[in-house]
Amino acid sequence: MSEQNNSNPQPNNPLHGVKLATIVEKLLAYYGWDGLADRININCFKSNPTIKSSLKFLRKTPWAREKVERLYLKTDFN
Questions:
Q1: 31 Cβ neighbours under 8 A, 6+ residues apart
Q2: Cα–Cα distance between 23 and 7 in angstroms, integer?
Q3: How many CA atoms lie within 13 A of 71 on its CB side?
Q4: Per the confidence metrics, is the pTM higher than 0.85?
Q5: Per the domain annotation, does 63 fall within a domain?
Q6: What is the Cα–Cα distance from 36 to 59, expressed in whole angstroms?
Q7: Is 14 part of any domain?
Q8: Does residue 10 fall inside a structural domain?
């Protein structure tokens, strides 16, 4: 038997260990609510947006969460 190195159990997942709240907060700081609504057409970014309501919606809606995660990966925060 060989010993496995579990220090990075998901090496091909760039979002591993990144919380959804962190993703939304970084995108919000970079784009603002209007910028997010322009890039991702979902009401949680358009109508009275808050971080709390957006997180609640994104946790329940896989297709919307995927769009947010893709935008996060495409965004160059530098």
A1: 38, 39, 75
A2: 23
A3: 22
A4: no
A5: yes
A6: 17
A7: no
A8: no
